[in-house]
Amino acid sequence: MATLNIDELSVPFLLYASFLCILIITQKEIKDKNNEMLDISNIFLFKKRILSHNKMKGDFMARHKVEICGVNTANIKVLSNEEQIELLKKYKMGDLNAKEELVNGNLKLVLSILQRFHTKTDNLDDLFQVGCIGLIKAIENFDLSHEVKFSTYAVPMILGEIKRHLRDDNNLRISRSIKDLAYKALKAKEELTNLYGREVTVEEISNVLKLPVYDITHALDSMKETISIFEPIYQDGGDTIYLEDQLDDKESRPEKVELSIDLKEALSKLKEKERYIITSRYIIGKTQMELAEEIGISQAQISRLEKSGLEHIKKMIS
Asked: Pick from 161, 158, 156: which is nearest to 107 by CA?
């Protein structure tokens, strides 16, 4: 049996082991390098996205730029807290120039607040003017004895003025109570929808708010946008069809015209006193008491004559 000579194997074995070690180390370095390159590429990609976002933001601001006549918005002065306090003291003493400086020195505050509303309206110029009104109100009502920063007081005033404008900026003037009810109904609707996972009915909203269905429906309808009856609703190369064309003219219905003719004829056949009472009550709007004093008879007689006249009309037009 041949004996194994360790010295003969030691050199090749060591060479092979060294080669494996070098290979492992090289693969690890390549992997680390790839990871490093991947990290670098991610950084470049992130920077690219930031630049793209900034470009889009810049494009948006360019499209919705607020123009202030004669004033470059980039060069608007920003007042320090100490300067504002000093100007507020001067204004409280009757210096109107100090008030103007305060307004001009806080225009950037108004512009920063407008950024919250860029999706609510297409006319930021109007909102800027409304925001300036809120700023002026804040200057006029600010109390130095409270020892708070002017901006802390001014921001809610400006926000409130803008929100009030957006709420009331409608073609139709809706009363505040109806709008408040509509907001409560919408809030209740959202809560019930999240609770039940489905669309809720007006009756369910009515049960939650403990209010009549009619009031809820009326309030929600008041929030809908109005459109002109001359709004085009269809056009296919020919004549345009407007909303007005699709509305039902109730006054021009044949049965409405016939009823009007029959009623006029029936009134003409009544006795003179009955005709006068019916006309005065249902066309002019007088009360039975007013007619009694005018004709010189009792209210009970007016009531009997009115009832008699209505009965005769019903018989003649039926």
From this structure: 158
